[in-house]
Specification:
The chain contains 3 helices and 6 strands, in the order H-E-E-E-H-E-H-E-E. It is an alpha+beta fold.
Length: 131
């Protein structure tokens, strides 16, 4: 569902989704959120080899929004990052996702330039939080 949502908002060259096969790597921790047994959200923490990590695949089903699912996923991500003594968390999100941008700002993420293998993209917003 998260892939379909992103594809409905952005052209292929501006979709930077991590494919499902990539979630099976040892440097990836993946969470699934459930309400009444139904999967309603997910996110991944992808550790880099420089002491930082990237948040990927953050998604909450539109029908479950407003129920603190995103907050709980963010807290799980940040707790794991702190436990692993990471120095910063980074992310790329799209400019057409104001709810996500608001969530990240609420958690203390600030805008940065492209990082890692990302290229500048007018439809992308890059953010970071120092831990």
């Amino acid at each position: 569902m998260s892939s379909a949502y992103a594809q409905s908002l952005y052209p292929p060259e501006s979709n930077h989704l991590l494919d499902l096969k990539s979630l099976e790597r040892p440097e990836v921790t993946f969470w699934v959120a459930r309400l009444d047994g139904d999967i309603v959200g997910c996110c991944a923490l992808v550790e880099a080899d420089d002491g930082t990590a990237e948040i990927k695949r953050m998604f909450v089903d539109p029908l479950a929004r407003g129920r603190n699912v995103a907050r709980m996923l963010m807290e799980a991500l940040e707790n794991k990052a702190t436990e692993r003594k990471l120095t910063a968390l980074r992310l790329e999100t799209g400019i057409y996702q104001p709810e996500a941008i608001g969530l990240y700002r609420k958690f203390g993420y600030t805008e940065i330039g492209p990082f890692g293998s990302y290229e500048p993209d007018p439809l992308s917003l890059f953010m970071e939080k120092t831990l």
